[in-house]
Amino acid sequence: MSKSKNTILTEDSSLAAKVLKEGGIVLFPTETVYGIGADSRNLSACLEIYKIKNRPADNPLIVHLGNPGMIQLIGEVSDSVRSLIYKYMPGPLSLVLKKIDESVFSTGLPTVAVRVPSHPKVLEMLSFFGGPVSAPSANLSGQPSITRLEDAISEFDGLVDLILKGPEPEIGLESTVMDFSVDPPKLLRPGYWGFEELKRFVPNLIGVSSLKDGETPASPGMKYRHYAPTAKVFLTETRSPESETAAIGINIPSGWKFSLSVKDNSEYMKHLYSFFRDCDRLGIKEIYCFPPANESGEEAILNRILKAQER
Ligand code: AMP
Ligand code: MG
């Protein structure tokens, strides 16, 4: 797409809400990654997101809401979903529910994914807007999500109507997605919250499974290559430093052309995508990712590295 729009760059969340009301496309930071959003009830605005991102038409968008009380207006909320909402929202968790509001965009599915972000700027924007905002991660389809304003500007200036400035994402990986439209509920994508933590609260939860040939994924997004830089990504435990390649991991040695040594899984999550993007900018051809620590966040980091490794 040609970068022909006159993109507004602002901290004014009421202006962002006005642009959404007029059918515009707004890019905004959340506590997970940057999102690219439109009014969920404006079909042509939602479809424009697919054009801008070059996103496959069957990969649905997550509906962002300004407060947890609005969820029951959009999707079917059982007692167990209600207690989950109380415990985890606002925050980095998306729930797939049976859709009850037909006016909300969802690629024709009978279900809808909802989330209430905890990021202060987005909450302000959503509260000024007053309705649902459909938003996938802000990145061209297949590429790593965006976690820094500079990447948001270089990729989307001229493509969207407004970029909302606010604190940078604290977490760095996309939200956890859980499917409650099925029984028992299923974890579709690990994130800040992983299977072990959630299972304590949802004992019958089923974990992310790898698909067998010919099987239909529960979440359309699961069948696409994702999160990947142009450089080839490898998960490794043993690779020694090399001068022409890059590496990321916990307390890794120096000697690489470019490397990032993080202190724990939180730092790993926060910097993984910006590291991928920096590697591409430096023209690096191979990135070696060392395993995360065996603690909270491990599952999400491994999930993203393995997806990025697919070719
Ligand atoms: P993104 O925000 O770009 O990471 O994309 C949203 C993710 O949520 C994708 O993996 C989608 O497939 C998934 N998702 C959104 N809506 C639904 C739904 N109704 N059912 C299953 N998965 C969904
Ligand atoms: Mg995405």
Automatic annotation (TrEMBL):
It catalyses: L-threonine + hydrogencarbonate + ATP = L-threonylcarbamoyladenylate + diphosphate + H2O. ATP binds at residues 55, 59, 111, 137, 145, 189, 227. Transmembrane segments: none annotated. Gene3D superfamilies: DHBP synthase, Threonylcarbamoyl-AMP synthase, C-terminal domain. Its main location: cytoplasm. L-threonine binds at residues 32, 64, 115, 135, 175. One of its GO terms (molecular function) is double-stranded RNA binding. Required for the formation of a threonylcarbamoyl group on adenosine at position 37 (t(6)A37) in tRNAs that read codons beginning with adenine. This is Threonylcarbamoyl-AMP synthase. The lineage of its organism: Bacteria, Pseudomonadati, Spirochaetota, Spirochaetia, Leptospirales.
